[in-house]
Design a protein that fits this description.
Strand content: 25-35%
CATH superfamily: Hotdog Thioesterase
InterPro entries: HotDog_dom_sf (IPR029069), MaoC-like_dom (IPR002539)
Family: Belongs to the enoyl-CoA hydratase/isomerase family.
CATH topology: Thiol Ester Dehydrase, Chain A
Helix content: 25-40%
Protein name: Acyl dehydratase
Organism: Cryptosporangium aurantiacum
Oligomer: single chain
CATH architecture: Roll
Shape: elongated
Structural class: alpha+beta
């Protein structure tokens, strides 16, 4: 008899963090893929004119860090059903950005296990950049 291993996470489980150093090199690669060469993301003077101390990263890059965080944690065990975040603070040049997450709830309906996650990105100083939520289901 083969023993089945549970794929269900536990409430309070922390997702392994996803960390990136940010700045022009990362933003330029993201801009190249998304055709998003916007001056506030490429030029310090444009960032300053917009009221920030430097150029700043794209909001959707924060979203992509959160998506990578959840996808790597799932490691093929399931899929992302929904992922959302709010852009609360800018990602400035030279920051270390860490995507983090924690399992808030787990449920089962009709044999399908799902989990609600609280996710966010933060700077090396702990300032939240993009808090959000995700729903995942396990196959």
């Amino acid at each position: 008899m083969t023993q089945q291993v549970s794929v269900a996470p536990t409430v309070g489980e922390e997702l392994p963090p996803f960390v990136r150093e940010t700045g022009f090199a990362a933003w330029n690669r993201y801009a190249a893929v998304n055709d998003e060469f916007v001056p506030i993301h490429m030029d310090d003077e444009a960032g300053k004119a917009a009221g920030y101390p430097t150029a700043f990263g794209m909001g959707n890059l924060q979203w992509s860090y959160l998506h990578i965080l959840v996808r790597q944690w799932l490691a093929g065990r399931g899929r992302i059903v929904r992922l959302s975040c709010q852009f609360r603070n800018p990602n400035l040049k030279g920051q270390t950005v860490t995507a983090r997450g924690v399992v808030e709830s787990v449920s089962e309906e009709g044999g399908v296990i799902s989990a609600e996650l609280r996710i966010w990105t933060e700077t090396q100083d702990g300032a939240q950049l993009a808090p959000g939520t995700a729903t995942v289901v396990f196959d």
